[in-house]
TrEMBL record:
It comes from the Eukaryota. The keyword Disulfide bond does not apply. Residues 32-84 form the Chemokine interleukin-8-like domain. This is Chemokine interleukin-8-like domain-containing protein. GO terms for molecular function: chemokine activity. It holds the Pfam family IL8. GO terms for biological process: immune response. Residues 1-27 form the signal peptide. The gene is LOC118241419. Residues 91-123 are annotated as: Disordered. InterPro entries: Chemokine_IL8-like_dom, Interleukin_8-like_sf.
Length: 123
């Protein structure tokens, strides 16, 4: 009987450890985010953006989307503020009923997948 109890405890510990590891990895897959930012300008054409709020391990960032991927950029940079305003204006003009419909550079052409986020700027 003593052996049975020891085996059950060992199995319970293994299950708890496996469940914890699975939960942690699953949470990282579901909610990846920028953990550092770059201050350099993105040299590729920017086709969309999202604003990331500070939360747990995530930091405040502007995530710019380009054809080759996503870039975590410091939102305090003057060029970033200008680019976000430019993209917002383009989106506003796109949504305006009086303006002719034309492709806008402010909305992503495909769904944003935060798993592709990178903080490096290629130049």
């Amino acid at each position: 009987m003593h052996t049975n109890t020891a085996v059950m405890r060992s199995l319970a510990i293994i299950v708890i450890i496996a469940f914890t590891a699975w939960t942690i990895t699953d949470a990282q897959k579901i909610n990846p985010c920028c953990v550092k930012v770059c201050t350099a300008k993105v040299k590729e054409p920017i086709i969309g953006y999202t604003l990331q709020r500070e939360n747990l391990s995530c930091i405040r960032a502007v995530v710019f989307q380009t054809e080759s991927g996503f870039f975590c950029i410091d939102p305090q940079q003057p060029w970033v503020k200008e680019k976000v305003m430019e993209l917002r204006l383009a989106q506003k003009n796109k949504l305006s009923p009086s303006s002719p419909s034309s492709p806008s550079s402010s909305s992503p052409s495909r769904p944003v997948s935060p798993r592709l986020i990178t903080s490096t700027v290629r130049g």
